[in-house]
Design brief:
Layout: E1 10-16, H1 17-24, H2 34-37, E2 41-44, H3 47-53, E3 65-72, E4 78-80, H4 90-93, E5 98-100, E6 105-108, H5 111-114, E7 115-120, H6 123-137, H7 145-155, H8 168-179
Parallel strand pairs: 4-5
Antiparallel strand pairs: 1-3, 2-6, 3-7, 5-6
Helix pairs in contact: 3-7, 6-8, 7-8
Amino acid sequence: MESKHTLPTKLYLGTTVSEATKVIAGGRQSRRHAREVGARVYATESIAVAYAHGPYDVDPAQGACCVVELRVNPRVRWLDLGQPHSIHGLFMQEPLDAVRTWGDLWAVWNTSGLISSARVLSHDEALRRLIREFETRGPDVIYEGITDEYAALWWRRAPHAGYVSPRVGAISQRLRVAAGFEHHPTASAGVSINA
């Protein structure tokens, strides 16, 4: 299958710190072969999606989370499905390491075939990359979970969920530390999210 997309140089994984340690050490452990149990890792080209699944801002009692940057091996065996498609059994028929399923989501069977290196991003580094994605995609994009709270603050718009999070002060402070300011410099101040 000819792909419309080029192989990205990096993917992101939002996960717990304990799972990140396993991925960095060479993949998640499984009792059965990956071809039998399904994808070991679901990674994404979007830092916003990864951050929503590995937010640094959650209560540590719930398990510390992070975003892992996965550097992609240029020799990875991959397939671009280009649309929602069942991947069940696909890896039993094809000698593949990963599949780009839909959007920017990747199902990874062979982590050692896909990943040339992996590292946990610092919170500030993850936020700076998140802000770059906000800048690229613009103010009208709706994100998932805490990522949308950051986008709402950055673009000075009402959060998608329709309520002001009690953690807006902490989010504002994190943006000030990571980016130097808490809002996009030219965003209109029409919406007060500190209400």
